[in-house]
Write a structure and sequence with these properties.
The chain has about 190 residues and is an alpha/beta fold. Helix content is about 35%, strand content about 20%. It starts with 7 loop residues before the first strand and ends in a 6-residue tail after the last strand. About 40% of the residues are buried.
Length: about 190
């Protein structure tokens, strides 16, 4: 599996009403956008994940599932049913993805280095800009640093995350990101 022309990851959040999520899928371009289902509450809403996966498949979108490492072992049956194009695993999980592409978070240079050594297909470098509750923004230098660590290799694909808007996307690409990812601004 490859990224193709994907340059934007639209990441869901349980605070966004479901109708907005499904409207967003209608608005996005499946040739450049992938959807990542993310539910960091205590018990994930797998029914919503199934419905989003089906909607994404019917429109030709790549669909990712964000799985907390501690839930991964018990999620095999659900993941097989959803059949995602990939999964996003938090830092510290030492599992190779058998569900397609694997993305990892990187909140510092060590996170990017781990993603490289662990064979991740994508790395979400964050927070680039200010985001409530995410600590100090790392700025565009974090993207330059990630690009330098990756060198000439084509993977992992580097995505900028954290405070990304239409206005800041270009500066992220210019700083070395292959694409951007957003949660709040993805679902207006």
């Amino acid at each position: 599996m490859s990224w193709g022309g994907i340059t934007f990851l639209a990441i869901t959040d349980p605070s966004v009403e479901q109708a907005r999520l499904f409207r967003g899928i209608e608005r996005f371009d499946p040739s450049t956008t992938a959807v990542q289902w993310r539910d960091k509450r205590g018990g994930p809403d797998w029914a919503l994940a199934r419905a989003l996966a089906e909607a994404c498949r019917s429109k030709g979108f790549m669909f990712f599932v964000n799985v907390r490492p501690e839930l991964l072992a018990g999620a095999d049956e659900l993941l097989a049913e959803i059949a995602p194009d990939g999964i996003h695993l938090g830092e510290g999980a030492r599992v190779r993805c058998r569900w397609g592409l694997l993305t990892r978070p990187a909140h510092d240079a060590a996170g990017v280095a781990r993603a490289l050594t662990e064979g991740a297909d994508g790395v979400l470098v964050s927070p680039i800009f200010a985001v409530p509750g995410k600590g100090a923004p790392r700025g565009l230098d974090a993207l330059r640093e990630a690009r330098a660590l990756r060198g000439d290799r084509p993977t992992p694909r580097i995505f900028a995350l954290g405070g990304i808007t239409e206005m800041t996307r270009v500066s992220c690409i210019e700083a070395g990101a292959d694409g951007t990812a957003a949660i709040r601004s993805a679902w207006p």
